[in-house]
Each structure stands twice: as structure tokens, then as C-alpha cells.
Amino acid sequence: MAEPIIVRAGVIVPADAVAVRAVRASGPGGQNVNKVSSKVELRVAVDRIEGLDDAARGRLRASATLDADGNLLVTSQRTRDQPKNLVDARDKVRALVERCLHVPKRRRKTRPTRGSVERRLTDKKRRTQAKADRGGRGSRGDP
Length: 143
What we know:
Layout: E1 5-8, E2 11-13, E3 18-23, E4 39-44, H1 54-63, E5 72-76, H2 82-101, H3 114-134
Antiparallel strand pairs: 1-2, 3-4, 4-5
Helix pairs in contact: 1-2
């Protein structure tokens, strides 16, 4: 049995919440790619991650790839070595969970400043005048 993934103090992905599967990788590798299963798929039961509140769990579900059962799906085929890919996939899970722990700042609605509104309107008038000056006589059907 594998060991748990420790994200930070108090946030742990238990070992029995992780299912590991090795599959054949795509891409270059010659004849080796057809007979060796070096790609690693990790499926993590999101509900079993310890130390996540409901908001963080929701952010994780929204930002990550989920399989049909609602489990977090992480793959790695970075190297041609299965144990290295397993370590990489576990690091990806750790990074995803770590990122969902960050609470985004709420955006406060702001209004444009008076100066920015005046600059915008002045620029619009200048562009309008420049386009009007371009038109020659008779371009609009004027005599």
C-alpha cells in the first residue's frame, strides 16, 4: 500500500483514497512504447481528502479534471519510467490541493475616476474630429 500524500499540516490525502493505474503512454519511445505501461493515472476520491472545507473542495472540483465517478483524475507520462511518473503524479495532486486551499480575494466593484472619464471623452472627440477632417468634399454626397 502506498503512503498518504501530505499537502501541508492538517491536509492529507489518505493512501486508501488514491487509486493508481499504469497504462501505455502515447508519444515517442519506439518499440518500447508498445509493451511497457509507463504512464500513471491517479484517481483521488475528493470527498476523502482530510482537512478540506466545503469551499476548498468546491474549488478543487471546479479547477481539476474529474472522471465519471467524480474522482480527481491526474495523469503523468513525463518520463519513460513508471516510478518517476508516479512521483510526478503525486506532486501534481499535492499542487492541485494546495492551490485550492488559497481563498481568492473578492473583487470590489469600482467606478472609473472623473479624470479617466474626461480623458476617454476627450479622446473620442479628437478621433471623431480627425475622421470628419479626412472626408473630402463630395464624399458624403455634399455639393
